Amino acid sequence: MAAITEDSKVKYSFLGKTGIQVSNICLGALTFGEMNGWPGQCDESLAHTILDRYMEWGGNFIDTSNTYGRGGSELMVGSWLERQHRHDVVLATKCGINMGRTINSRGLSRRHITESLEGSLERLRTHYVDIYQTHIFDNATLVEETYRTLDDLVRCGKVRYVGVSNVTGWQLQKIVETQKHLGLNPIVSVQQQYNLACRTSELEAFQVCKNEGISVLPWSPLKGGLLAGRVRRGQKPTEGRLGWVAHSQTRKGEAHPHWEDTSDQIFDLIELAIEIGKKHGRTIAQVAIRWLLQKDVTSSVIIGARTLQQLDQNMAVNDWALSADEMKQLDDASATAGTYPYVFIDSLNAGRTNANTGDYYVKSVAA
């Protein structure tokens, strides 16, 4: 393996309004352990090798979930973690998605949250997690119950901070206002799918984050491999994870967040990113990750890796930068089509952006 130079190692940023700093690249552990038949998953030995190499890059932020491999990912991270200095690692995990044991093994009730955390702590071989995140919003449980429970877990020391993921703008604002009203410890981070091919969270959720000082942790920065340049215009993928997903969708008739009928706009964007990457001697994947790092809402980008080569390539994004013109080109090429009421609001509030309160929405959407 090539030596890692000091200037290419990760940078650090504060997580929301907390005093802790996390590396701007977070290692996601979705690839560790058996995952519903997905190809290329890492066994324990490879997972530990990837984790060791990530630490060599200066990384200190690891994200997993109880649902990844039905606990298998947490087990692998835990067996690695017990060989480390626990305080060197900022560890995040999640709860809320159906674990399939009983009818109550899902959601964000007090019962399921506390049960889930106990299981995660046991698998992770630690007595606390730094960030405990709701994996989804639960329409069946009162928001007050969910966040009182999480606040109790912070107060008793099993959780340091609370985060959320996969939320709409109104859900996020409701969570924030409920916590304020009840005097609870506030959420510090939001995990959303965010990449050059998926920018809808900019419309509302990220505006809440800007106004409330909440960190954004983008997941799927490469859109499941689509932004790694593995798919050609007019063709469905046939190899690797994207090929498996596309085949599964066709076979089962199911939608999947990483594969849908891609538009000409996506392939125009991919070609632009390839062209920009060549100017810097970088891959399209590195361009896609670098674009996220230069967004002001981003604290840390969550990457996954199935090989050491993938890890090293995706980590090599800190010793260079995209120019302002290149960022604008990528913004324009990836802009979401303008919709009501955002375009309408923009037309009536032209020139009234206030840096102290944040935009109402992303300007490129209305462009």
UniProtKB/TrEMBL annotation:
<dbReference type="GO" id="GO:0005829">
    <property type="term" value="C:cytosol"/>
</dbReference>
<dbReference type="InterPro" id="IPR050523">
    <property type="entry name" value="AKR_Detox_Biosynth"/>
</dbReference>
<feature type="domain" description="NADP-dependent oxidoreductase">
    <location>
        <begin position="25"/>
        <end position="333"/>
    </location>
</feature>
<protein>
    <recommendedName>
        <fullName>NADP-dependent oxidoreductase domain-containing protein</fullName>
    </recommendedName>
</protein>
<comment type="similarity">
    <text>Belongs to the aldo/keto reductase family. Aldo/keto reductase 2 subfamily.</text>
</comment>
<dbReference type="Pfam" id="PF00248">
    <property type="entry name" value="Aldo_ket_red"/>
</dbReference>
<dbReference type="InterPro" id="IPR023210">
    <property type="entry name" value="NADP_OxRdtase_dom"/>
</dbReference>
<dbReference type="GO" id="GO:0016491">
    <property type="term" value="F:oxidoreductase activity"/>
</dbReference>
<dbReference type="InterPro" id="IPR036812">
    <property type="entry name" value="NAD(P)_OxRdtase_dom_sf"/>
</dbReference>
<keyword id="KW-0560">Oxidoreductase</keyword>
